[in-house]
């Protein structure tokens, strides 16, 4: 009830208050009534948008032209506002700018409900929303950027002309786009380094005594930081009031489904547990392992040891292809004791972490195998490590040698290296799959090392016993053309049945996404 | 002096003595209590002990210095790790609702381990170190200490010898203790230049313009490079190591030139001079982005951080004044004023300091002085004896340094406490 005052004010002038700018900080939650259908449609379409943001973020540099182009087309496909268009100008056959902004607003808040529940979900949601916001902010015209800053009361301290002069050389050497001339014309903002972590991380800014000096053109970083902090706080608050929402039986299944959708298949539930014998592993590593796992397996056999990052990446993969805990313990022990580790030390120092992987120790989480995204983006290998994505984390020259030693044709190697150069690591891996399995076009889109393994086994016909339910993704792909229309169908008389169908749609969507 | 005759088998006998008479509990508590500025800071801190036979006990916590003392004297841990300050007492973590028990704060820590340099040192490998490769740690400390102070504005940096093959840094400023995981990883990445695992040859890639931080770091490396890399590690003396260096030189033409030059020129300084000259020519020719001589220097000398240790708020790190079970050496703080002469092999072992305890006491004067001071403080007898005890051993100078470090921090706590009481007056 205490919100009634604010509610009245917004309702009195919703368009200028809430949707006056094509971009917003999502400070006010929407307060109008909407239909269940609209609720679903908005949620699903924003999720698609965020999924696109995630996928593009892996394949392209976030500020590259291709990235922007692809995102832009996704925006218009899904009818989200992506650039400051004049208010309410009717586009032919399309929704008005106002409708788009409203959709942006409402869909964001629906997903907050779905994604506030766990730390993992929050992190994923924040990351995608931040990337989305960065793209949209960068895309604004300078005057719209300023307008946005004003509207949201974002003010940052600028440094004096004298200070700028004194630091000129350092400022120039800290940023790619700043030259002697632009230093003079440009405002520099001085903020605590904690507020511009992205620039600190990549050393794209001058740092002194705990403060960073940010040229105006990079102001997006501070704004983003603000955005991230606010969103993070808001999600924590939302999580607290979630029980009230979850008691609504119309929304609860939908929200749960939305949040489960983000990771796609996690390859943790195995029908094939225990169907692989340890003797098979060496030959499987040659035939059906993706390069990252083959590299780890080889390193393990050669050194009789793998460092932590490698043990995690490879160990969970092995769990995913069906090794039981006992097999895993036996596998690692037999290899480690051939090296410097004796059986006693293995049982003390390493066995724990393997049981941990299988959810038998500590907080008893049943860990899932790493996806390509995780392998590529998190925990890059350092000295002595063999984990990571060989397409992402190898010198091209070494990668080439490795591929040659695996008898890949020179033209094939060139195609792969070309994809690596364009930072399409997963596509490069898929190309490697096609070349090693002698097929023209693999009918799946690769996003998980365990998926690689399963697809390979399927092709090689050895998959009889390791077979899983494989038809779903393909069916989903065929459906993709018609999917949009099914999601946006009219409200049916029976909302719960509607929901069931709609969650099915989501399932199929995320299996191939 | 029989400092190196430590026998790991004697550890179970020495540890009780060490914890009863030598471990500097009072300074230790003073450090981790941080002047009592924040409530329950010490009480909610996680300690973890490694006991005999690698039995690992996590989530220990203590409400007072006395309790910590009693427990350590009872358990006699082989190794002590310090974790985060949690939202609740760590020893009660099972009694609070899951999800609410969270790591809130910890010092920003760095862990530099000599094993990470194995591809660029020829003197030793794995856990072994010698005075030659120790220079790498000196360089690491110089570079990171400067950056953490000048760039990030931190002031209270405690550098600690790990007891075997590396060093740790504990950044104790309040702002550092409060950093988020994201901020810690950003700081660690800012400070990391050497990247890539076994599948990467060229691990340092510089681009235009060279950031002021890298320039500053290069200045440090340049100071040590000739003596360390060319003279002691002989990186340009034999075929194998030369090949390793030349793998980092980008162009075939330059390579040919260098190889030819090396045929006649045997002096490593002059060989390096030639390489540098070629790099300079190359830069003049293409104007941009050719820094291979700098990249080589950094790849061979720049500090290699274990980023994962710095990132996590809840990551455990071996405590200062813990004993290294393999070497018997005490993990002691390093006084940077004496960094150049710091020798890891001079660091006292637990057998040495226990032996020193048994030696007849020296001059009486010092003791009297101590005695009068202690009377003023009215400490109990045991405490007084303990202070006398460690002062008679080679541990004394390290404890004294910790005292000085804590005095420095106390000055900023005082400011903080004053500010707080001022605020209260305003009410």
From TrEMBL, chain A:
**Protein name, entry field:** DNA primase large subunit
Organism this protein belongs to? Myripristis murdjan
On assembly, the entry states: Heterodimer of a catalytic subunit PRIM1 and a regulatory subunit PRIM2, also known as the DNA primase complex. Interacts via (C-terminus) with PRIM1. Component of the alpha DNA polymerase complex (also known as the alpha DNA polymerase-primase complex) consisting of four subunits: the catalytic subunit POLA1, the regulatory subunit POLA2, and the primase complex subunits PRIM1 and PRIM2 respectively. Within the complex, POLA1 directly interacts with PRIM2.
Q: Locations of Polar residues compositional bias?
A: 476-497
- Chain residues that bind [4Fe-4S] cluster: 292, 372, 389, 429
Q: Which UniProt keywords apply?
A: 4Fe-4S, DNA replication, DNA-binding, Iron, Iron-sulfur, Metal-binding, Primosome
Tell me which cofactor or cofactors this protein depends on: [4Fe-4S] cluster
Q: In the record's cofactor note, how is the cofactor described as bound?
A: Binds 1 [4Fe-4S] cluster.
The record's annotation in InterPro entries points to: DNA_primase_C, DNA_primase_lsu_euk, DNA_primase_lsu_euk/arc
Q: List the residue ranges of the region (Disordered).
A: 470-513
Q: Which GO terms describe its biological process?
A: DNA replication initiation; DNA replication, synthesis of primer
Record's function text:
Regulatory subunit of the DNA primase complex and component of the DNA polymerase alpha complex (also known as the alpha DNA polymerase-primase complex) which play an essential role in the initiation of DNA synthesis. The primase subunit of the polymerase alpha complex initiates DNA synthesis by oligomerising short RNA primers on both leading and lagging strands.
Residues in domain DNA primase large subunit C-terminal?
283-453
The taxonomy runs: Eukaryota, Metazoa, Chordata, Craniata, Vertebrata
One GO CC annotation: alpha DNA polymerase:primase complex
Q: Name one GO molecular function term.
A: DNA binding
Question: Which family is this protein grouped under?
Answer: Belongs to the eukaryotic-type primase large subunit family.
UniProtKB/TrEMBL annotation, chain B:
Q: What residue spans carry the Basic and acidic residues bias annotation?
A: 372-383
The prosthetic group or cofactor this protein requires is:
Mn(2+); Mg(2+)
Tell me the Pfam families matching this sequence: DNA_primase_S
Q: Which Gene Ontology BP annotations are present?
A: DNA replication initiation; DNA replication, synthesis of primer
Keywords (alphabetical) are: DNA replication, DNA-directed RNA polymerase, Metal-binding, Nucleotidyltransferase, Primosome, Transcription, Transferase, Zinc
Q: Which InterPro entries match?
A: DNA_primase_S, DNA_primase_ssu_euk/arc
State the residue spans of region: Disordered.
358-383
Q: Which Gene3D superfamilies match?
A: DNA primase, PRIM domain
Listed EC numbers: 2.7.7.-
Reaction catalysis annotation:
ssDNA + n NTP = ssDNA/pppN(pN)n-1 hybrid + (n-1) diphosphate
Citing just one GO molecular function, the answer is: metal ion binding
GO cellular-component term (any)? alpha DNA polymerase:primase complex
Q: Is Metal-binding there in the keyword field? A: yes
Q: Which family does it belong to?
A: Belongs to the eukaryotic-type primase small subunit family.
Name the chain's protein.
DNA primase
Q: Which organism is it from?
A: Myripristis murdjan (pinecone soldierfish)
């Amino acid at each position: 009830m205490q919100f009634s005052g604010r509610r009245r004010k917004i309702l009195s002038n919703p368009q200028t208050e809430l949707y006056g700018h094509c971009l917003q900080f999502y400070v006010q939650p929407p307060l109008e009534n909407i239909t269940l259908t609209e609720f679903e449609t908005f949620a699903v379409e924003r999720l698609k948008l965020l999924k696109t943001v995630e996928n593009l973020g892996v394949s392209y540099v976030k500020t590259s032209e291709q990235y922007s182009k692809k995102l832009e087309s996704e925006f218009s496909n899904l009818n989200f506002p992506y650039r400051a268009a004049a208010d309410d100008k009717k586009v032919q056959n399309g929704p008005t700018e106002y409708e788009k902004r409203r959709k942006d607003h409402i869909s964001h808040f629906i997903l907050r409900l779905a994604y506030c529940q766990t730390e993992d979900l929050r992190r994923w949601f924040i990351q995608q929303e931040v990337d989305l916001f960065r793209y949209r902010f960068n895309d604004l015209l300078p005057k719209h950027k300023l307008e946005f800053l004003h509207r949201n009361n974002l003010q940052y301290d600028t440094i004096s002309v004298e200070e700028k002069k004194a630091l000129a050389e350092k400022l120039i050497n800290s940023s790619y786009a700043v030259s002697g001339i632009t230093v003079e014309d440009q405002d520099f903002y001085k903020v605590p380094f904690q507020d511009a972590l992205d620039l600190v991380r990549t050393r794209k800014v001058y740092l002194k005594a705990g403060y960073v000096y940010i040229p105006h053109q990079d102001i997006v970083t501070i704004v983003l930081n603000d955005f991230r902090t606010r969103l993070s706080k808001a999600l924590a608050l939302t999580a607290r009031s979630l029980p009230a929402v979850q008691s609504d039986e119309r929304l609860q299944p939908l929200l749960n489904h939305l949040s489960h959708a983000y990771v796609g298949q996690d390859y943790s539930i195995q029908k094939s547990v225990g169907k692989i014998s340890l003797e098979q592993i060496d030959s499987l590593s040659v035939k059906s392992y993706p390069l990252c796992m083959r590299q780890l397996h080889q390193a393990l056999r050669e050194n009789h040891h793998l460092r932590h990052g490698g043990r995690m990446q490879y160990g969970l993969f092995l769990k995913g292809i069906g090794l039981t805990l006992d097999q895993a313990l036996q596998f690692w022990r037999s290899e480690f004791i051939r090296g410097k580790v004796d059986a006693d030390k293995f049982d003390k120092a390493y066995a724990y972490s393997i049981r941990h992987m299988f959810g038998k120790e500590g907080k008893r989480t049943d860990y899932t195998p790493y996806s390509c995204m995780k392998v590529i983006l998190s925990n890059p290998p350092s000295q002595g490590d063999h984990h990571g994505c060989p397409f992402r984390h190898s010198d091209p020259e070494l990668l080439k040698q490795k591929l040659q030693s695996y008898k890949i044709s020179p033209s094939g190697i060139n195609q792969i290296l070309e994809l690596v150069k364009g930072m399409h690591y997963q596509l490069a891996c898929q190309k490697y799959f096609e070349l090693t399995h002698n097929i023209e076009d693999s009918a799946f889109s690769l996003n998980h090392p365990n998926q690689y393994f399963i697809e390979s086994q399927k092709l090689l016909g050895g998959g009889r016993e390791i077979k899983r339910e494989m038809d779903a993704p393909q069916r989903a792909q065929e459906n993709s053309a018609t999917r949009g229309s099914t999601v946006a169908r009219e409200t049916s008389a029976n909302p719960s049945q509607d929901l069931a169908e709609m969650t099915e749609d989501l399932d199929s969507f995320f299996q191939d996404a | 002096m029989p400092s190196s005759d430590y026998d790991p088998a004697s550890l179970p006998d020495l540890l009780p003595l060490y914890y009863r008479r030598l471990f500097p509990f009072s300074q230790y508590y003073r450090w981790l209590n941080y002047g009592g500025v924040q409530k329950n800071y010490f009480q909610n801190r996680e300690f973890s002990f490694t006991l005999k036979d690698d039995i690992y006990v996590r989530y220990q916590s203590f409400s007072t210095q006395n309790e910590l003392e009693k427990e350590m004297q009872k358990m006699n841990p082989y190794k002590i790790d310090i974790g985060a300050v949690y939202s609740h007492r760590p020893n009660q973590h099972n009694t609070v609702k899951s999800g609410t028990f969270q790591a809130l704060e910890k010092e920003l820590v760095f862990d530099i381990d000599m094993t990470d340099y194995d591809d660029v040192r020829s003197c030793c490998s794995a856990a072994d170190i010698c005075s030659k490769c120790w220079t790498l740690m000196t360089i690491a400390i110089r570079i990171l200490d400067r950056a953490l102070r000048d760039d990030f504005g931190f002031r209270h940096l405690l550098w600690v010898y790990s007891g075997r093959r590396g060093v740790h840094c504990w950044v104790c400023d309040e702002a550092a203790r409060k950093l988020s995981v994201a901020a810690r990883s950003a700081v660690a990445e800012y400070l990391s230049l050497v990247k890539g695992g076994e599948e990467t040859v060229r691990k340092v890639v510089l681009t235009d313009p060279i950031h002021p931080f890298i320039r500053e770091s290069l200045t440090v490396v340049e100071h040590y490079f000739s003596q360390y890399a060319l003279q002691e590690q002989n990186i340009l003396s034999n075929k194998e190591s030369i090949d390793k260096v030349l793998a980092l030189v980008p162009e075939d033409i330059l390579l040919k030139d260098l190889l030819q030059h090396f045929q006649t020129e045997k002096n490593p300084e002059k060989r390096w001079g030639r390489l540098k000259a070629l790099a300079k020519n190359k830069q003049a020719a293409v104007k941009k982005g050719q820094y291979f001589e700098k990249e080589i220097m950094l790849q061979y000398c720049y500090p290699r951080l274990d980023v994962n240790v710095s990132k996590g708020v809840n990551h455990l790190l071996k405590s200062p004044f813990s004993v290294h079970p393999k070497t018997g050496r005490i993990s002691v703080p390093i006084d940077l004023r004496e960094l150049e002469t710091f020798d890891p092999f001079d660091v006292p072992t637990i057998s040495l300091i226990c032996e020193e305890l048994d030696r007849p006491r020296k001059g009486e004067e010092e003791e009297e002085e101590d005695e009068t001071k202690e009377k003023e403080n009215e400490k109990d007898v045991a405490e007084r004896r303990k202070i006398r005890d460690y002062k008679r051993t080679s541990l004394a100078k390290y404890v004294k340094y910790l005292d000085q470090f804590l005095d420095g921090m106390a000055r900023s706590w005082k400011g903080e406490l004053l500010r707080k009481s001022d605020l209260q007056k305003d009410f």
